[in-house]
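tl;dr need the bound structure. longer version: we got a ligand (pyridoxal-5'-phosphate) that a collaborator sent over and nobodys looked at where it sits. i said id run it. heres the input, straight from their email, havent touched it
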Amino acid sequence: MSAGPRGEGVDPGPGLEPLDLEAIRAQFPILQRSIEGEPLIYLDTAASAQKPDAVIEAIRTYYRREHANVHRGVHHLSALATSRYEEARRIAQRFLNAPQAHEIVFVRGTSEAINLVASSWGQRLEPGDEIVLSTLEHHSNIVPWQLLAQRSGAVIRVIPVHDDGSIDLEAYGSLLSPRAKMVALVHVSNALGTVLPIRRMAAMAREVGARVLVDGAQATVHGPVDVAELGCDFYAFSGHKVYGPTGIGILWGRGELLEQMPPYQGGGEMIAHVSFGGSTYAAPPARFEAGTPHIAGAVGLGVALDWLADLGRDRVAASEARVLAHGTRLLSQISGLRLVGTAADKAGVLSFVVDGVHPQDLATLLDEQGIAVRTGHHCAEPAMERFGLTGTVRASLGVYTTEAELDVLAEGIERAVRILR
Ligand SMILES: *Cc1c(COP(=O)(O)O)cnc(C)c1O
């Protein structure tokens, strides 16, 4: 089992000092609460991560002491809010190892980032151009491209996956052609946990002249991400999945591409000059940030990214890989339980079905034991369909997830299955 989304056989190694999970857990107020009298076991981080005190406090301080609108005023608070907002941009730049801060665009989340690229960059597509997606994509990385295909006459091609949930690279190679203009790939599948070999797949895309967008909604939380090393053109992620606030996320795009892209939305902040004869637009990132942004969200996100970086993202990846391996062993021993997604390179997710038991019923009984898991198609219906399923039960891990919690999960599953069968 590899240890994080950087993937491609990069193992941060056993030499890393382990994380103190109890000290980390103590920083998450919500983990101290109980559900129906049972201690909360939160195994739904892939849907949204919980927030550490540092993030909660930063947002509170921002609103109590620092708030004003950004980029507009000469007064003290406006300058302070602007510097906090722009500092968050530089933090996100460092977090992704992006070459330039102005390549970082604040958006609402992964979904908006992908919609922005599909709407704006997508205007250059022509009938017959191809958009290549994998079977594992989240609906957020499917539907914006379908909308673009409808508008432009472009065609969507889909990369198949093997039975273990890994990408069929040979099939990918044979469906790539010079007609491919965009390859849009999830970095880590939220439904199965598969880590895609992005560096290799991006290099293959470049050979035919296609651009590469990476949906990093799951990858950023589980380990180091380096856009320079990956060789992609766009990288998107959501704040709320990396211990930050909801309603804020990041689109990184190569400077020269963003420079050529038309605006996505119009409004204040994104213009150079406006007249009724026509308007001119600001340079990126302002061109793509119409209106008053989610300033508090950006501040909170910056703190979350620094918080995660301070833990050591290699250590986070190694720690989660250990907990995931433990969970995989435990669940594999439960009779009638089938793990869906068993790729060698995997992160953060245990997706499974149990013979004769409906996922929804199982999740309901787990909830009564204080265990929060998710069921359903996980916004990845084509991936479910590939495995002949309508849904799975998914336990997803965060940096605060312990082996002991997965012991309770395994016991909880066995107890629930005894009741349900
Ligand atoms: C959550 C998720 C998204 C969508 O993120 P939003 O924050 O809802 O915009 C996209 N892709 C993957 C892989 C996800 O896990």
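gonna send this back to them w/ a short note. Residues 46, 109-111, 138, 140-141, 186, 190, 215, 217-218, 238, 241 surround pyridoxal-5'-phosphate (CB under 6 Å).
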